[in-house]
Amino acid sequence: MKRKENSGPTKEEMREIALFNNLRFLRAPATISKEDAWLQLMGRLSENRTVATTIFTRSLTFRALLAAATIAIFLVSYYFIALSGSITLTTGNGQMVTAYLPDSSVVYLNSGTTIRYNTKHWNDRREIKLEGEAFFKVKAGRRFSVITSESVTSVLGTSFNVYARANEVKVSCITGKVLVMSKSSGESKLLLPGYKTKVLKGARVQREKTNIDLEAKWVEGKFYFQQESIGRVLEEIERQYNIKIEYKGNTNRTYTGFFTNNDLPSALDLVCIPMQLRYKRVNAITIQVY
Questions:
Q1: CB-based contacts of 40: which residues, under 8 Å, 6+ apart?
Q2: CA 13 → CA 49, 52, 65, 194, 271, distances in Å?
Q3: CA torsion 168→97→217→160, rounded to 10°?
Q4: Distance between CA atoms of 244 and 253, rounded to whole angstroms?
């Protein structure tokens, strides 16, 4: 059904006009970030906007309002991004992401990982905060730093892997040189290709040789372990398959081997059989290991 030319705007149009009028009052509350405030605004737009199922003629005035509202939205969005420059990337369980940084450096994020960095100051300070695990391929340039709860890892241009979970940090150098410093003690270790280090709060920084061909194989979905606690191995299976594992045994038993993230029964067999463990499915998302 067509609208009459002289009839007033519909309820949907009135909502859009009201949202447009409210744009001039847009302000991020003190308790949340500007980015979150913008997302809330967009959420309100989504909730109040419906898809038209009939074709009708809009008045010139209403079209002008819509155009002005669109321009205002883009201006406010640009303002928020330009103001802070803060970027946060997070992967959930069962997810992996490849991220490209402003200088064309590349970061591969493992499951259950968060990185934070600022694009506004990137040219002066290449700095990333990491929680989880990530593999970095850094383009040569100014100092590039990865900050975790327990360490600061600095390079100029190289490739390396950082694991930072549960107050433990492990850094492996694949190419170039990597300097790792403990935040609690200030002790530093320089790593060359084929070496890795472990940083624990209150402990000496350890450095040892490693197999660089296996250190970052997780990027390909292959996870290798050398004398790793069974508890950590099962935690990695949980992350890769987005499941819950119930295990009441000795979590300090060590495991050497590997699993892949493309077949859960095979992964469980590869870990459990050498450890003389069994497993059974409790429900759709829970596995019991005993």
A1: 32
A2: 9, 10, 10, 64, 60
A3: -60
A4: 19
Name the residue among 128, 127, 89 with its Cα closest to residue 111: 89
Indicate the residue type of 268. L
Q: How far is it, in rounded angstroms, from Cα 186 to Cα 7?
A: 74
User: What b/e sequence results for 87-119 when a residue is b if at least 16 CB atoms lie within 10 Å of its CB, and e otherwise?
Assistant: beeebeeeebbebebeeebebbbbbbbebebbe
Tens digits of residue pLDDT in 239-280? 999 999 999 999 999 999 999 999 999 999 999 999 999 999
202 pLDDT band, cuts 50/70/90, is: confident
* Model pTM score: 0.71
- Do the bridges between strand 286-289 and strand 244-247 make them parallel or antiparallel, or are there none, so unpaired? parallel
Longest dimension (CA), the chain: 81
Closest C-alpha among 167, 165, 200, 169 to residue 185:
200
